[in-house]
Amino acid sequence: MKGLGLSLKALLSHYWCYPWQALFLIAGLCAGVALWSAVQIINGHARASYEQGNQVLGAQAYYWIRAKDETGVSTADYAQLRRQGFREVYPVVQGVLLSAKQQAIPIIATDPIALPVQAIQTNTSATEFNGLAFMQAPYQAWFPPSLARELGVQVNERLLLKDGQTMPPALLQTQTQQGRQVLLDIAPALSLLKRDKLSYLAVTQLSEPEKTRLQQSLPAHLSLVENRQSVDLSQLTQSLHTQLSAMSLLSFAVGLFIVFNAVRFSLWYRRPTLRTLRLMGVSVSTLSLAIAVETLVWSLVGSGLGLALGYLLSQSLLPTVSSSLQSLYGANLGSDIIFQTRTLLWAWLLTLGGLILALALPLWQQLRLPVLPSNTLSTHWRSDQRTRKRLLIAASVLALLAIFIYPLIHQLIQGFILLGMVLLAAAWALPALLASSLKLLEYLLPPDSFKARWLIRDGWAQLPALRTAMMALLLALTANLGVEMLVGSFRTALSTWLEQRIAADFYVQGSSQFKLQTLLDDPNTADWLAAVNERTQISLRWQEHPLLLRGVNPSAPDSQTISFTQALPDALKTWQAADSQQQWVLANEQLHYLAGVKLGDSLALETPQGPVAFQVIGFVHDYGNPYYQLFLPNSLLKRYWPHAEPWNTSLWLKDQRFAAQAEQALLKAGAKAGDWVEQKTIKSLSLSIFDRTFAMTAAMNSLTLWVASIALLAALMAILQERLPEFAQWRALGVNRLEQWLVMSTPLFIWAGITWLAALPLGALLSWILIHKLNVMAFGWSMPLLWSMTPAWHLALLTLGVILFTLVLVAWQLRRKLPQALAQLGAQA
Amino acid sequence: MLQLIKVSKAFPQPDGQLTPILAGIDFQLNAGQSAALLGASGSGKSTLLHLIAGLDTPDSGEIVVRDQSIMTLSEAKLAELRRHTISLVFQQFYLISTLKVVDNIRFQAQLSQRYDPAWEKQLVDRLGLGDQLQKYPHQLSGGQQQRVAIARALLHKPALVLADEPTGNLDEHSSEQVMALLSELVKQAGSALLMVTHSRQMASYLDQAYWLKAGSLHSEVIDT
C-alpha cells in the first residue's frame, strides 16, 4: 500500500505542475458526459412523464368517458353522473387558443372541486392554492414558467387572443401533469374556446362492480374507454428518444477521443516518472493499480461535473423538446425535471467505461515498454507507422463488416450500430490518409530544398500527437454535415409536401359551429369560392396502434394532385371512384415502413357493422405524423362510420382579393374569429414545429464540434509542451518566428483540409444512411437526399476559425514559455 | 554480494546480424567494496549495469545478487529487488520533476520502508542540499540534481549501488565533489558500489577498476 500511495502521489503531482492537462481531461469527460447525460435526463424525464400520462392533473385516470361521435360531453351528462354518486369522475377540457400574435396556446381545464386529489399542489409557487380566486371571475390562468417565457407573458397580464377575448390574469405556477399547457377553471376555458361541451370525463380507478354500474349508467351516446395514453406515447416517441440518445452517444464518443488524447499525452509526459518509479522498484502491477485509482478519481470528478453540466443543459433544452413532443405527439412533459438515480448511475458507469477504454491502450503500450526504452525518434516513428497500419486494417475490416450487415438491418438500434461502425472505420482510416499526404508532399516538393525536407520531417513528428485530434474533428465534421444534409433535405421535402397538402386558402376547424351548407346556400358565395373540401375523421386502433381514418372529398383540388410514393396502376382514378365492391384506401407511408403493409394488402378494420377489409392502392408522404393514417373518400367513410366527426373544411378562393369577403361569409355561416386559419399560418406553424424539433439536434451538433475543438486545442498544447526544448534549439540555431510557425502550422492546415475533404463524402454517406435507413425505420418518412455545399463551407470556416484560435493560444503560451526554455538551453550548454 | 557467471549479451544489427557485446563475463563484488567499470563508448558498460539491475536480460550466464539468482525472477520480484537491495544513479539523474527535492530524496526510502531521519539529515548536510529541499528539480543546477539522486539512492542504505556515469553531465569541479561524496557516503552506508565511467580520474576514487574490451573484463590498475 505504501508503494501505491507513493506512486499515486508521484503520478498525480504531474497535474499540479501541468494543470491545463487536467483541465483538458476534465473538459473532455465533462463535455461528453454532459451532452449524454442531458439527453438521458430529458429522456428519463419524458418517460417518467409518459408513465404519468394516465394521470390528468395529478389524479390517476384509468378510463375516459368520451362521446361516441367525438363531439364532447355535455355538462348535463357530467352533472348527472356526479349526482348518481360517481365521485371518481372529473371533467377535462382541452384545446388550443390562438393569441393575437398568432401563437398557439394549449390549454387544459378542470373543476378543482371535483378533482380527486388531496389538495391542489402548486409546485412553483410558495402561495397556498386559492380555490375561490381560481374559480371566480376574473379567474386565474396558470402558465408554466417556460411557456410564459416563450409567449412573453408577465404575471397578472391578461393575454389578448386573436378573436379579441382576453385570458384570465396570468400566474406563473404549475400543477402536476399540466405539462406545456395553461391551466384554467372549466368556465373560462369553455368560454374562451367558445364551446359548450367538455372534451371528456376522466375516471380514476374503479372496482369491477363500479365499472359495470358506471357503464350501465352512461347515456347511449357516451362510452367508457380505457386510457392507453402512456402506452401509446411510449411507443410513438420511442424513435425520437432513440435518435436523441444516438446523437448524445456520438458526442460522448467525440468526448472520449479527447479523453483518449489527454490520457495518452498525460502518460506520455509521465514517461520519466513511470521510468523512475520502475527504476526505484515500483512494479508494473502497482503502477497499473495506481493509474486505475487515478482513473476512478477522474471518472468521479468527470461524471460529477458532467452530470451537473448535463442537468443545466437539460434544463435549457427541455422547453424545446417539450414543445416538439407536444406538437408532434401531443405529449405533455412537466416543466420540472424528474431526476432519476438510474441516470446518475448510468452516467458514471459510462464515464468509467469510456475512461477505461481510453486509458487501456496507451497504458498497455506504456507499461509493456522496457524500463529503459531506446527512445530514439526512428523507433518512435516505426511504432507510429505500425499503429497507423493496424488502424487501417481495423478500419477496412469494420467497413467490410458494415457493407455485409447493411442489408440485414431492420431495427433502429442496429441502424445506429451500423452508423457507429461507418464513423469509426472512417476515423481509424484517417491517420493513414494523413500520412499519405506527407508522402505526396515528399514527392511533390523539390528534394533539394532543405526547408521542404524540414517541413515534411516535422510533419511526421507532429502526426502521432495530432492524429487523434484529427479523428475527433472528422467525427464532428461528418456528424454535422450528415445531420445538416438530413435537416436540409427534410426541410425541402416538407416545404414541397406542404405546398401540395396545404393548397387551400382557408381551413375551418371541425369543432366550430360553422355550417358548410349555410355557406353554400348563400348566393354570393359563388362569387368568391372556387372549391371546397369538407373532411371528416374517425380514430380507431389497429394492431395495438392508433389509426386515423380521414375522409376527404375526392373531387376537391388537393385530391387531384396527390403524389404517391408507391401506387398500383391508375391508383388515383380508382381511389376517387370509391368502388363499393373493393374498398380502396390511400395509406400514409408510415403504414408501409413501420407496419410492413404492402400495396394491395387488405386491412381489416373494426366498423360498427363488424370487421371490414380495406385495400391499400397507394402510399403517400405524411411528414410529421406519428400515427398510421388512411385516406378514403367521405362517402366510403360515412358508409361504415356514420358518426365520423368533422376534421376541417378547406376553402379555395377564386382570387386572393376575396379574402376579406370570405372571412365575412364564414362569420355568417356560424364560424367565430379564430375558428379558421389561413394557409400561410398553417405552413409557418408546421415549419416552426419542424425547426423546433431540429433545434436540439442543431444545438447538440454544434456542441459536438466544440468538443472536437477542445481535442484539437489539447493536442496542439501537448505538442507545444513536448517540443518546447526543441523549439528553443531552433531559435538558438537562428530559426525566426515566421519559419517556425510555417513549419509548425503547415501540416496542421493541410491535415485539417484533408479531414474536411474526407468529411464531405462521409457526411453524404451518413445522411444517406440517416435518410434511407434510420429515418424510415424511426418515423416511416422517406425523402430524397439533397446535396448542398453551404453547410460544408460553413464548417470549413468554423474549423479554420478554431484552428486559428488554438494557434493564437499556442503562440501566446510559446511566447510566455520560450524564454525559460532558452535559458535552460543555455544552462545545459 | 554480486556475482556474474559467464554473462553474455548480443544485439541485433540493422542487417539482422548479431553483434556480441558481452562475451562470458565473470565478475564478483563483495559487500562494502567499490569498483569502477571502464571502457570505450559502445563497449557494453551500461548494458552490463542494466543486466545487473534486472532492467534487461542476458542471452546466457547467470547474475547472482545476495546469493539469489535474478535470472528466474518475475518482473514483480525484480521490482522488489530494486526497491530494497539495489539503488541506481544515472547520468541523467532521473528525478521526478513534479515532486519537490525533499520528496524525491525520501521516495525510495519510504517505498522500502527504511526511512531514517537522522541519516537523511546527515546526507542532506554532507551533500549541501539543506537550502534546496523545497525546490523542484528544474530549479537546481546539474550538480545539485545529481546530489539529490545520490541522496535518494543512499537514504535506504541499499546493499548495492549501481552508478552509470554519474558525473557525465557535470563539470570537472562538480564531478570531483560528487565523486568524493559518493564514495565516502557509500562506505558510510555500508553499500557495495559498481560504477560505470570512462574517466580514470573518477575511477581512482574506488577500490578496484575493470576495463571492458571486446566483450571481456580485464582488471585495471589505476594510478592516482
Rounded radius of gyration of chain B (Å): 17 Å
- Helical stretch tally of chain B: 7
- What's the N-to-C terminus distance of chain A? 42 Å
Strand content of chain B: 25-35%
Structural class of chain B: alpha/beta
- Estimate what percentage of residues of chain A fall within beta strands: 5-15%
Question: Can you describe this structure?
Answer:
The complex is a heterodimer of chains A (829) and B (224). Chain A folds into 4 domains: 194 residues, no CATH class; 165 residues, no CATH class; 230 residues, no CATH class; 162 residues, no CATH class. Chain A has 24 helices and 22 strands. In chain A, a hairpin with a 2-residue loop joins strand 14 and strand 15. Helix content of chain A is 61%, strand content 14%. The longest helix of chain A has 54 residues. About 1% of the residues of chain A have low confidence. Chain A has 829 residues and is an alpha+beta fold. Chain B has 224 residues and is α/β, with parallel strands linked by helices. Chain B has one domain: Rossmann fold (3-Layer(aba) Sandwich). Chain B has 7 helices and 10 strands. In chain B, the strands form 2 sheets. Chain B has a 6-stranded mixed sheet, with helices on both faces. In chain B, strands 2-1-4-5 form a 4-stranded antiparallel sheet, covered by helices on one side. In chain B, a hairpin with a 2-residue loop joins strand 9 and strand 10. In chain B, helix 4 packs antiparallel against helix 5. Chain B starts with a strand and ends with a strand. The relative contact order of chain B is 0.20. The mean pLDDT of chain B is 87. Chains A and B meet through helix 1, helix 9, helix 10 and helix 24 of A and helix 2 and helix 3 of B.
